[in-house]
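Reviewers of the previous submission asked for a worked example of the structure-prediction workflow described in the proposal, so we include one complete record here. The input consisted solely of the amino acid sequence. No template or homolog information was supplied to the procedure at any stage.
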Amino acid sequence: MKAMRWRPSPVLRWLALLLLCAAYLQGGLNKAMDFGSAIAEMNHFGVSPAAPMAAAVIVLELGASALILTGFYRWLGAVALAAFTLLATFLALRFWQLPLGQERFMAANSFFEHLGLVGGFLLVAWHDLRARNDG
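From that input alone, the workflow returned the following structure tokens.
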């Protein structure tokens, strides 16, 4: 007897992808609406040239999210956000450099939460590539 495969509804699947992309949509839109603050963020983390890098981050966050949500090269958008998140996490959340205490505790929690996002995006890419090869 063949095992039955559970398939979530397309609406539920899209909602899950939207939730995964929510921080990147919000971040990209906020940066686009307040470009001065986006440049200040780049300067804060020592990223230069700040203005072109801020623009690149906006395009990446919004563009990769759009790829994921539309299904057009979903795997590419997911890999792009996974790589971006991993890089940004190691840049912004270096908890191991902080003294013991509340700030280090919070940075460590955020660091590992971001690694979870990386894993989620890699799963999206994996499933999308597998579906393309199976279909």
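The chain has five helices and no strands. We consider this example representative of the routine output the project will generate in years two and three.
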